[in-house]
Amino acid sequence: MKNSVQHFLACFIALIPLIYLGIIWDHLPATVPTHFDIYGKPNDYSSRSSLWLIMGFLSLISIGVYFLVFYINKIDPKRANQGVPSGMRNIARGTTVFISLLGILMLRSSLHPEQIDNLRFVPTLIGLLFLFLGNYLYRVRPNYFIGFKLPWTLSSNYNWKKTHQLAGILWFLGGLFIAILSFWNFLLDRLFLPIVLIIVIVPIAYSFSLFLRRNDIPEYFDEENKREENS
After folding, report:
1. Cβ–Cβ contacts within 10 Å for residue 211, how many?
2. How many structural domains is the chain composed of?
3. Which of 9, 101, 134, 150 has the most CB atoms around it within 10 Å of its CB?
4. Which percentage of the chain shows pLDDT scores above 90?
């Protein structure tokens, strides 16, 4: 598929919440929920006009993330003169779809307040997003924008590769657990934050441990790093 067609589809998907808002505008109540807790229950309300700002912001974020990832090689010194791997492009596409789904669910809750429980699937979507990202995280090559951008990962391709291999597994499993636990609020309430902390902190700690053991790992300093050291 040509890039121009992919870009058009991505922008269209990103704008779906705004299009949907225009369609249902006359049917919305004067006051609508605009903020929700982790379980999808509303905890703040505003004028329906604020939905234009919220949906517009979501669309801009979605489009911005998509094009940032799609053309990351144009602005990232580590990716200069290199193509963007399909895994990173899939991350861009998946994030665009995820943000649009959140916007649509939010608008549905505003249109049908009596069906507000439909937002209970938001934690499920968050879990599926982690799962999706984990499936591609190990394919992300060294760059300054996406992934675990630590001093130790950016200074060694070996460290980057090993860190993101572990992170990919943890994010996939963590997302799977969150998606399953989302059907039991009492479990999600206790385990959501610990799961997120584990999938973030463990890869960072592992990356640092590799750095500390760098002189004991023959592969740690790859050819690229050796060239940089000799330059």
Report:
1. 18
2. 1
3. 134
4. 44
